[in-house]
Amino acid sequence: MHIETAYPIARRDAQRLGHTQEWDDALIKVCRSLVADRTGRSAPGIRILLRHSFLMCLAAASHNFDRHSFSLTAQREHGPIFRGCRHKRLQCLKKSAVADQVLEYNSQIHGERPMFKAMLSRLSVAGVAAATAFFCATVPAAAEDVTLEVWSHEADELAKVAFREQAARNLEKEHPGTKVKITWYEKNPLFAALKTALPAGQGPDVFYLEPDLVEYISAGYVIPLDDIINWNNIEAWARQVWTHDGKTYGVPQEAYTNEIYYNKGMLKQLGVSLPDNGQLTQIQFLDLVKKAKAANITPIAQGVGDRPYPGAYISAEALLRKLGPDDYRKLFTGKLSFSDPRVVDVLKWVRELVDAGAYPKNFMTLKLGESHYYFYSKPGALMLPMGSWYTGRAFVPEDKGGQPKDFPLGIMQFPAMDNGSCNECKTSAVGASFVINAASKRKQLAAAFLNAMSTPEMGKMWIETVYLQTSIKAEVKNFSGPYAAYFSELMDRQNGAKYFIGSPRDMTTGSCKDTFIQVLNSGFPGGLLSVDQTVQMMNAGCFKG
Amino acid sequence: MRMSSYGFAHTSKLKLNSGEPELDARRIKPSLLIAFFTPALLFYIALVLYPVLRTFYNSLFTMRPHGAVEFVGLHNFAALLTDGTFWTAVRNTAIFTVVATVVDVFGGLLLALCLFVRVPFASLLRVLWFTPVLMSYVVVGVIWVWIFDYDWGLANTALRAIGLGALEQSWLGQPSTALWSVMTAHIWKWLGFNMIVFLAALYALPGEVLGAAELDNCGWIAKLFYIIIPMLRGTIVNLLVLSFIGKMMVFDLVWIMTGGGPLWSTETVSTYVYKRAFDWNTFDLGYPSAIAVLWFIIILAFVSVLRGLLRQRDKLEF
Fold first, then answer.
1. Domains of chain A in sequence order
2. Testing the interface with A: which of B157, B263, B271 to mutate, by most A Cβ within 10 A?
3. pLDDT tens-digit map of B155-164
4. Rounded to a whole number, what is the distance in Å from the CA of A274 to chain B's nearest CA?
5. Residue B198's closest CA among B291, B128, B105?
6. Is A3 a residue whose pLDDT tops 50?
7. At the topology level of CATH, where does B81-310 sit?
8. What is this structure's pTM?
9. Minimal CA separation from B191 to chain A, in Å
10. Interface pTM (ipTM) of the complex?
11. What is the dihedral of CA A401, A407, A413, A415, to 10 degrees?
């Protein structure tokens, strides 16, 4: 092999390892010697030696080097050093320590070669000293070769997967040597995994969490983020959701509002038109349900087969508008009785809807994803009350369960309650958020990842690809693309809204939450309970007197 | 050689060739015994014994915030006495266990008898009846959720097809039918297992006894009740106990099909333990551990009573 061929290979290796000029010079000198002394060796053999390591160059410079017998011995003793060594920064430290042993081995086995040994000694001392000094100096940089573990929900929402993976790649670019590994889960398996890993002092560095899961904060498994996150990029109201006792524990990402999605074509077919503000009255809404049922159209495609909240959308939003935000919060935090006449009025109206056939017969077993399909495909329904994260399942290709391209989607407000305290009120909540594991050894890097997901550019990407509101401050004045009309209508529906931040499952815990799930979410809208039974059971589970 | 009570020759010494010392299997070296025994023992300790002991330990504590634990003694057990959801779960589990165990075991015996007398297509039926045993609970749960679906499920479609549309309902959506629907799916899955065990036991029955009964002009019903079932008593008891234990701990199918609803009508002790451990906005494992410990003691007690009641008091002679 000519030096012109050997030198670029060696130099490439040297540059890859971040070598200094001294290292470079030492490597070149050994390579020259190698080529000069070992003219009998085959070219591929020399190339392999040059590729592997500087140490191999040193070893091979010994006159009686026998690649097979030496390398077998060496591999037994220092195997990893010779295999793929150039990618292992820490191993390179060993190189310098082993180099002396290698030379010693060669001199003992193969006898002294004074002229060559002298030259080699000079080179090895200089080279090894330079290498050791260099690698010791670069060890902190080598330590950046770390993996940040992230556990996330929403494995089946492709846009959100792409969003978080993009943030991961952005972080890896800014921090060379860092790898972000995101493990994707569905929600219940994720929380089951966290509840076993975290008490054992393990788990990922960063994980998905939702604001109602306050036990992670009270148990001390997540750290406050006030000083390590750039809060200028996060909406203040969203940050407030994650603030407990003056400290903020989570970075909110997803924000949503509760809406009623409806089929414009079916509404027209029933001869009903919405007012300009998109909000019907109690009576109008009940009439609409009855008309739909009479026309053999399922009025509300809702199911509680695999979620603890969809069945309560109508009841909860009605209660919010009837009671106003303060009493609404008191109701679900046990400070207001369900026997309150206003609450009973709302429950009676909901019961009328149920008796009119508002919900499908398979309400109890219909899953969330299936309810989407039920609404916009087969068999089709008039309305689907849902968080505005409806888009995550609907705005995907039809063969992946998305709505048909020409589906006449509309958005209406939840109906206004008679004598309602706040008919302009609207539930807004923070959904997907991320927190840092208190046991993480890479907290600063974890914070960098959270910041990487929360830049204005990423906020814009979220809105334009996920088609969902976000807690990140993002300026998106003009919507474009196939769903521009949807987003414009969604923003229209926010006009004049007074937001109540939080949903019943954010406010309820323990026995009250379990009762809410079984009664208000499932049993009552499923027609299994009367109003009196509902009041009695909700008070038993929630009202603290 | 000595003859066992089963009539099999039994050797404890293996003679190789003449002149060579006899090898006694009981004289194995202790070190070799330990070497073979230790891996399995380690697995058992790590995956079975330690979790059980740890659960007992946890039941006496309450986990407080920031990793602190507080010894509460029997407080968790006392709280169970006034936990309405727990007692609802106990009731549901008891109904499920008793009914499903009896149907499973004696239904399996019936199927095995059908195959034993070689009904037409016996080979095919054996495969069909055993196939559900090979399916996972997830697959079985999803299949039966579809079968019980109100709009397009097989159950209601069949009822409509035979003019019984008035009987169609939301099988998993009504408290009165949900538990029985889950039970149906569970029985469907395990019937084949009991069938195969009984079939093996039937083929192992001494033919001369059955032949002698026929010579004595014994009819099939009498043969079944006076000869076959008494001879299968051991198998029946074992399957009853196994089935009982399995159904007392039922979790997977309930979780997949109903999640314990509607209105706690399918809540079992196992699903309630899971909810208290993972869904209750707390990291406290003390209370769910107490439920698990109490249930363990109850199962142990019932199994002991069951074995005592069903044990064979007199020796069979034939």
1. 3-142 (no CATH), 146-253+432-466 (3.40.190.10), 256-429+478-542 (3.40.190.10)
2. B263
3. 999 999 999 9
4. 30
5. B105
6. no
7. MetI-like fold (1.10.3720)
8. 0.74
9. 26
10. 0.78
11. -90
